[in-house]
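Handoff note, outgoing to incoming analyst
You'll be picking up this chain. Sequence as last confirmed:
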Amino acid sequence: MADAHEQSQEHAHKGSNRIQVSSSKKPMFFYVNLAKRLLAEQGEIHLSALGMAVSTMVSIAEILKKDGLVVETRVSTCMDLLGGEDGRRPVQKAKMEILLKKADNFDELIATEKERQGAEGAAAHQEEEDGEEDGAEAEEE
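Most recent structure output, in case you need it:
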């Protein structure tokens, strides 16, 4: 398997469909939304995580599966040897990768989600305007 430096280089390539999940750098729903965007663009994604981030990655995959957006096509696990530079001892970390491809009805589900979000946003905006009008009427009295 590739070492951590090679993986981060691979993730940095433009158009990559690999998501390196961290348990501390970004909130989980950042990764969920990123996965949706990459699925729409590329049709499949590779989720990858080390150590404590594995549970976060599994949660991301399960959210996408529960919503009917993806089909799991492969799961792999291994132990990666990390570190060992500057006289330090290398450390073994659990690594897991999940390959997901978009479900047949992915585009339809995403369109429905966007419509719902648009309707909710319009309703919230209308409530805001109604509240401002009520406040202006109260000032006139």
